[in-house]
Amino acid sequence: MVAIPSRHKSLVLLAGVIVLQVLMLAVQIKRDSEGRLIRVWTVGAVSPFERAGSSGFGWFRTTWRHYFALQNTTKENEQIRRENDALKLQISQLQGKAAEAERLAVLLNFRQSHAGVPMIAARVIGTGTASLTIQLDRGERDGIRKDMGVITPDGVVGKVVESYPNASQVLLLTDKESGVGAMLADSRTQSPVGGQGEPLLVMKYVPNDDTVNLGERVITSGMDRIFPRDLPVGTVAEIKSGNPFKQIRIKPAANLERLEEVLVLLSLRPLEMKNEENTGDAQPHAPGAANPPQAARR
Amino acid sequence: MNDAFDIRGESHIEVHKFRGGAIIVATLLALVIQAALPVHFSKAAILDLPLLVTIYFGLSRRNPSTGLLLGMVIGLLQDSLSGPRVPLGLYGIAKTIIGYLASSIGARLDTEHPAARFALTAAFFVAHQGLMVLTRRILLAQQESWFNVHLFVAALVNAFVAVFLFLLLDRLRRN
User: Fold this and answer.
1) Cβ contacts (< 8 Å) between A160 and chain B: which residues?
2) What's the ipTM?
């Protein structure tokens, strides 16, 4: 055996550790499910802290914003304001809670208006650092499974890519590898909409001779068998001619950069949304609207 | 004093030890804050707190083996928390190398001055991003740009935050 000089031991260790991780990367690329166990352990251990951290930061943000917003008043009110600072701070905290209650009420109303569609509300407790993912505080124990759709009352958010016992991870629509079956609400032209790692989405396969208008609504087509038909995806923000398809960029309907609560569609079968607001111009009579969804189920 | 410095003849550089559990607590806190903070402050996504913790403990402990192993653990934990689209090892490889480099440089230079910490953190941040891009391009066949203005700004912001974060972490040292 050749003895390794002590000053080179750390270099040998570095090489060994790097090779190990490169091999691990190689294995994961071949078999997508590898590494799941370590993820389950890590997410299981850290998600309670994330949940606590998320609540703590929420409180801090609310306090910070509302407290410093109160600084912009006139000098003559300064003394009165000082006397009332503690009270106003309390009010600002209550306002934060009220805003949260309002958001939750919107979710509840949306859920009640789609009583036939099984869904569950979840809170966003974390974000991914490299890919455009968010982490939810609900998982397998709440019925959430991989490939389930995630929405807000405003529109489509993404889909569940991993489900753990008490948490789940959602790939946002804006991620490069994300996509949704969609169509233009007016012309009923169908085309998938995908992300590009940017705030805007892209609609890929609309022929040049089709008419598309700026501001036109884009809704789900139901063709991906994840999202029910007629959910808002976004609005057309930019149109350019291309060869052979137009280059259409879509502004997402849901505010994907400021998600706090979402709804997870608890079904892996095609669903149908009975939403009067959205179905006015999106009835399933359009040409190309093949594959009508099956009846909703609970 | 650490034996490693006797080998290099640099025994004047002090090796810092930390209170029990300080490294584990700081690492977990960095990972939790990194995941939770951008939910409420989207601009906070520019920070890479696990990297800053890796750099700090690498510079302070000044032991390459410890530095690279800590970097590996932090990197793999960050990979695990970054969703299934991020393969295990992407952050792991980059932080392993940064942990090694930080502890190697920490053993040769005095890194206690805020200006040195600022410059080193900015350089390590850029190196970390370079390693990530290299891994994505070579091992994952993903096209990523090498340099952009966002990276430059992120390096400066992280270096600025590091100066204050490191002062905070200095309090965990055992005298």
Assistant:
1) none
2) 0.77
